[in-house]
Amino acid sequence: MLRIAVLVSGGGTNLQAILDAIDSGKITNAEVVGVLSNNPNAYALERARKHGIEAVCVSPRDYPTRAAFEEAYLAQTESWTPGLVVLAGCMVVIPEKMVNAFKNRMINIHPALIPSFCGKGYYGLHVHEKVLERGVRVTGATVHFVDIGTDTGPIILQKAVYVQEGDTPEILQRRVMEQAEWKIMPEAINLIANGRVSVEDGKVKISNYTFGEI
To answer: Per residue of the chain (214 residues), what is the pLDDT tens digit?
Structure first.
């Protein structure tokens, strides 16, 4: 059984998609053992508690230095002995020490088709604002392993979403979540939990895979 720690900062809609997929059997051989937030007001913590999952806040405001916060953040994550760490709307810049501790065992969901609209400054609603400013016709979401760069780790899954006339950043954000994020994040976790994902020469290999399995 794959033990999963989920790191969040806000409402936790991707967390909910993961929990729903586990409950419905779309994700097998996995369980969420802890949810960690840097934000004490994150509704994701309440979502976790409703599922009987340990929910903890480690806020940088409670530590004298950034280094002290990062040590506590890593220690809390490691306390759950996770086989996989999932960044699901996590706004914390993950320190290199933590990335190395979970090499090829930490994944992130990004609300665009990497390598487009990613990197420093591209997070949350900003991504969708830039998509609309550029006038592209297709956007989407990407699940990737986390490395020491920003959105530069090996790509696991991607799903495209069409931009529509009259979209606002908020409308587009919602469509990307519904049509892409909430689908490919659980799918990626299921593949990892069942031993079908490996990383070779910086690229992800998936065994016997048909897109949209779940």
So the answer is: 999 999 999 999 999 999 999 999 999 999 999 999 999 999 999 999 999 999 999 999 999 999 999 999 999 999 999 999 999 999 999 999 999 999 999 999 999 999 999 998 899 999 999 999 999 999 999 999 999 999 999 999 999 999 999 999 999 999 999 999 999 999 999 999 999 999 999 999 999 887 666 5
- CA nearest 80: which of 108, 97, 102? 102
Pairing between β-strand 138-145 and β-strand 155-162 as defined by DSSP bridges: antiparallel
Whole-number Å distance between alpha carbons of 113 and 158: 7
Strands 2-8, 84-87: pairing is parallel
SS3 70: helix
Q: Which residues are catalytic?
A: 110
Nearest-angstrom CA–CA distance, 153 and 146: 5
